[in-house]
Amino acid sequence: MNLHRVGPHELGRLGEHFAAEHLRRDRMQVLARNWRHRRGEIDLIARQADVVVFCEVKTRRSQRYGALDAVDGEKLRRIAWLARTWLHEHCRSDQPWRIDRMALTVADARRIELEHHWGKSTWVTAAPTRSA
């Protein structure tokens, strides 16, 4: 498959597929892909030991536009709110969790490079506030 000829939507799907495989190789269990809520979406949700990991995946054709630059403070706040909502629906109230960012860049027509930036903090949270 020539990655330079893949459309943007398909490229994003491929990036999320490669990211999920990377998590599995790192001995994480993928719990959900493209979890949707009326306020947004979380690309990948995984478990690493006792920590739930919420992953934002960005796939780009070149390094000219930094993939992780698109994950700014506002985007991280939205992901955190969505993460607390998911945790409230699926886990115990004291569940540790973190947000990871993954950047995938098309290196050439047949190869994608992946950077996995682990969240700096692990949080324990209660139910989300409804004001967000």
Instruction: Report the uncertain regions.
Output: none
Query: How large a portion of the residues is in β-strands, by DSSP E?
Result: 35-45%
Distance between the termini: 42 Å
- Helix/strand-derived category reads alpha+beta
The average pLDDT is 83
What percent of the residues sit in helical stretches (DSSP H or I)?
25-40%
Under CATH, the topology is which? Answer: Trna Endonuclease, Chain: A, domain 1
Number of helices: 2
Secondary-structure element pattern, one letter each = HEEEHEEE
Outline? globular
CATH architecture: 3-Layer(aba) Sandwich
Number of strands: 6
Main beta-sheet strand count, sense and barrel state: 6 strands, mixed
Q: What is the alpha-carbon Rg in Å?
A: 15 Å
Outline the structure in words.
- With 132 residues, the chain is α+β, with helices and mostly antiparallel strands.
- It has one domain: Trna Endonuclease, Chain: A, domain 1, CATH 3.40.1350.10.
- It has two helices and six strands, in the order H-E-E-E-H-E-E-E.
- Strands 1, 2, 3, 4, 5 and 6 form a six-stranded mixed sheet that branches.
- A hairpin with a 2-residue loop joins strand 4 and strand 5.
- The longest helix is centred in the N-terminal third of the chain and has 18 residues.
